[in-house]
Amino acid sequence: MSSSRSAPPETAPAPLEARPRRGINLFWRTFFFLALLLFGSIVAWLQTFRTLETEPRAIQNAQQLATLVNLTRVALRYSDAIARVSLIKTLAEEEQVRITPRKPTDKFELYISDEFGERIADELTLRLGHDTVVAGNVNGQQGLWVGFSIDGDSYWLLTDTSRLGPSRTSTWAIWLMTAAALSLAGAAVIARLINQPLKQLSFAASRMRDGDFEASRLDERVATSEIREVNIGFNRMAAQLSKIEQDRVVMLAGISHDLRTPLARLRLETEMSVADPDAREHMANDIAQLDAIIDKFLDYARPEPAHLEPISLNDLIDASLYAVADYPDMKVNVSLPKDTKVLADQVDLSRVIANLLENSRRYGKSPQTGMALVDISARVSDAWVLIKVRDHGKGVAPEVLSRLTNPFFRGDAARTAATGAGLGLAIAEKTVLRMGGLFSLSNTSSGGLAAHIKLRRG
After folding, report:
1. 3-state secondary structure 103-152
2. 455 with 384: CB under 8 angstroms?
3. pLDDT at 13
4. Which positions ≥6 away from 174 have C-beta within 8 Å?
């Protein structure tokens, strides 16, 4: 086996870099729809209330103002000059109503501030006559001005706009803002109550995926019956999976223990009893292969989490190449950035690289040369290091590509005849996931199989 450091080899786009589409958080989506529903209901209620309330209120206020103008008109018409002055003074002091002569030079602005004011003005004109003027500003003075005539003389009646109630715009705005704030607060509370069990379930599922079955236990005493049933079912499933995992580990450990003793005896008896050197060598190789398969079983069954620390990827690759330096049918090209560090377990990552190199040597040989040409490259992307190990063999059929990391699965008939347990790629994927990374396989554009590893930068 020979290795060299060359220019970066051809690389196809790594599937690990394809970032999944980020959707809207379930809490915010629920909150948005609830807020939209509540706010729409408030606006509809507000519009309905305004429609049903504006007309009667405008008519009532117009009736009161018309009555006040008519009473004032009658009182002024049938009073002498002295009594008229006294009456005007009394109206100003007691009723906050001021009567002033209306002059042709008076400048005024009509009282039509909104739909409510326009309705009052129309009602007053209808009740007091077409010559009635309703103004909101006369000669620069604000107020509710009603212009009327008495025996050909024109007057202004000035009263406070508070008789019509508070400002319509400000009142509705305040109520709308208050209702909107309460609706948003209520929507947030409801969304949290709805999504909290789902969030807990999502967290528990992620912990169970990582093998932490104890942290994945959910509360079975919640008040909501449907959530309680889901939590109970999830806990039962987690308990069964935990038991299956423990039984699997115990079974594989027991197999390794039970098989290694007779294998050791077979090795000893082979060395002592078989006279033919070729037969003895073949039998010893078979025993070594069985022992290696047992090691694969144990590697795959390891349940404990990895101990992560910053390690030098350059040194680790060099050590991995040194371990396979005696293979005459393999050549490795390496292209790594200097001083690249990854957050990983050194022993586990070494095992991953060794499995990938062994898989390339067995199944990735070029049909033309019979050599396994392997390219190892890496690059840094933000907080991640992307590692690629590819061969120049025939690759695999696309339909079985996603199944290569399944335990005991082999991609084609040739691999079925090959030695091994079919656990190498499964161990690589499981080990990388245990270190908090990602692992995937893809066919390259120029032929061959590529393994993509994504680990955190150390």
Report:
1. CCCCCEEECCCCHHHHHHHHHHHHHHCCCCEEEEEECCEEEEEEEEEECC
2. yes
3. 44
4. none
Are β-strands 330-335 and 2-5 bridged in parallel, bridged antiparallel, or unpaired? parallel
Give the residue ranges of the chain where pLDDT is below 70.
Answer: 1-26, 50, 53-55, 81, 93, 95-96, 112-116, 160-172, 210-211, 215, 249, 252-253, 255-258, 293, 295-306, 408-423
DSSP letter for each residue of 180-218: HHHHHHHHHHHHHHHHHHHHHHHHHHHHHHTT-TTTT--
* H-helix or E-strand spanning residue 330: strand 330-335
Q: Is 383 exposed, middle or buried (0-12, 13-18, 19+ CB in 10 A)?
A: exposed
| Helix then strand then coil, % of the chain, to nearest 5 | 55, 20, 25
| Amino acid at residue number 350 | S
Cα(389)–Cα(361) distance, integer angstroms? 12
**pTM attached to this predicted model:** 0.50
What integer best gives the mean pLDDT of the chain? Answer: 76
